[in-house]
Specification:
Length: 136
């Protein structure tokens, strides 16, 4: 349940919502690790001229370093992408949808379009389409 001045997500009420919260937290941890790593190297390079011998700037070729800074971000991206695709697959509802809602935001009002399947109410497979415009 949401409350005023809430700093976190509300409690999840479904399994896809719980998975999205876990995905958010995982991405946030990875972003913070990248931020601290880049910040550490930036401080190291900025402080190096004042402390002799801290950084060896004469390195011109390091195959291990090049492989590391190529593969490490790719592992992070594969982990984020695979969990994102898993969440997307779990949120797919398929054909068993009761109704569709399309919300369009205009400059001064919202437009709500509902498409209802009337199979359970009528013998025909007709669709009804109506639009509501709400001005604020």
């Amino acid at each position: 349940m949401s409350q005023w001045y809430q700093m976190d997500f509300p409690d999840p009420s479904s399994e896809p919502a719980r998975m999205l919260y876990c995905y958010h937290d995982t991405v946030l941890v990875i972003v913070m690790m990248v931020l601290f790593g880049v910040g550490w190297f930036l401080i190291l390079v900025l402080v190096a001229p004042f402390m002799k011998g801290l950084v060896n700037r004469d390195i011109t070729n390091s195959d291990k370093l090049e492989v590391a800074w190529t593969l490490l971000p790719s592992f992070f991206l594969v982990a984020i992408g695979s969990s994102s695709l898993l969440n997307l697959y779990e949120m797919e509802v398929g054909d068993n949808v009761g109704y569709n809602v399309s919300v369009t935001g205009h400059q001064w009002y919202w437009e709500y379009n509902y498409i209802l399947d009337l199979d359970e109410f009528t013998k025909d497979s007709d669709y009804i389409y109506f639009s509501l415009k709400k001005d604020y």
